[in-house]
Amino acid sequence: MNTSILAIESSCDETSAAVIRNGEVLSNFIANQKVHEQYGGVVPELASRAHQQNIIPVVEAALKKSGITKEELNAIAFTQSPGLIGSLLVGCCFAKSLALGLNVPLIAVHHMQAHVLANFIGSPKPVFPFLCLTVSGGHTQIVLVEDYLKMKVIGETLDDAAGEAFDKTAKILGLPYPGGPLIDKYAKEGDPRRFSFPEPRIPGLNFSFSGLKTAILYFVQDQTERDPDFIQNNMADICASVQHRIITILMNKLVKAAKETGIKEVCIAGGVSANSGLRKAIADYSRKYGWNYYIPEFQYCTDNAGMISMTAYYKYLAGEFADLTVSPSARSSMERD
Ligand code: KG4
Ligand code: ZN
């Protein structure tokens, strides 16, 4: 018998819907919200309103592309947390109504767990146990993954996330939000060793990016005082140097985690895993340390419902359903006690 699930992702500023059948993602439709660009960051209330406008056309587009009708769906899934509460509420209420109307089960999915499981869309697939470096706009984690639904965060950021370090650097350089992809673009033309930024000394497997952000700010202010055109004339080298430092901070902790756990299967996930420098670094380090590495396809790195649908599929097989009174935002097993 076929298992078909519709999944919705609405945790931040992307409205996305996907359909999965028997573990194969058939469609993954994403509507980006342009409204935030002029504010230099996501405005929560505007995000909720845009989700409300987008959700029906996005779901219809995902269903149409998949060739699956509403009546064929076996479950409806949604992102439960973490995320912006108003944004999560839109996806959660929509999913509840549809599940009620179709009389099928509801599945609540943890956003960070879904980023990890994006590595199971396509092949080759990672082998358990593996380590996942999950790097997004709100989180930076090293996750020990024992099974599809059994994961433990063994390291995380104490302050800013890696994605935030990219976005805040972009802001300092006068680039629009979200800055990560632009820094990536400029970095390709620059010299990563031209400017040196500090690596924080944080014990264990945890990360910190707020000191780096301050160092970049002071460096740019200082240089601009001497030469008002400093940013303009050195954009590629600044971006390459910052990106290089963020990547070495991430990779050094991953090396430490791999040594401590003895695990040689490694994945990356989350919005920052779209970064070309990080994608190259995981390949280079894997060669050096004898790891097998996995990277999600580009469209499954940044927020997308495909990864929600993949997690929902495994939750469906495990019989992990939510009831209709479930909260759009709840603490779950991915978070530390
Ligand atoms: O996973 P995601 O889409 O949303 C969250 O769950 O936060 O991650 C968004 C983050 C943003 O900080 C964005 O700048 C960053 O991912 N990002 C990138 C790239 N593409 C997206 N950072 C560096 N290089 C990229 N190519
Ligand atoms: Zn995300």
> Spans with pLDDT under 50 lasting ≥5 residues?
none
* Architecture (CATH level 2) name of the largest domain: 2-Layer Sandwich
Q: What is the distance, rounded to the nearest whole angstrom, between the alpha carbons of the first and last residues?
A: 39 Å
Sketch the topology as an H/E string, one letter per element: EEEHEHEHEEEHHHHEHEH
Strand order of the largest sheet: 3-2-1-4-5
CATH superfamily of the largest domain: ATPase, nucleotide binding domain
Topology, number of strands? 10
What is the CATH class name of the largest domain?
A: Alpha Beta
Kindly give the count of domains. 2
Which assembly state applies to the chains in this document? single chain
Describe the model.
It is a single chain. The chain is α/β, with parallel strands linked by helices and 337 residues long. The protein has two domains: 132 residues, ATPase, nucleotide binding domain (Nucleotidyltransferase, domain 5, 2-Layer Sandwich), CATH 3.30.420.40; 172 residues, 2-Layer Sandwich (Nucleotidyltransferase, domain 5), CATH 3.30.420. Helix 3 packs across helix 9 and helix 5 crosses helix 7. The strands form two sheets. The chain has a five-stranded mixed sheet, with helices on both faces. It has a five-stranded mixed sheet with strand order 8-7-6-9-10, sandwiched between helices. The mean pLDDT is 96. The chain is built from nine helices and ten strands. It binds 5'-O-[(R)-(carboxyoxy)(hydroxy)phosphoryl]adenosine (KG4) and zinc ion. The site of zinc ion has 6 residues, from helix 3.
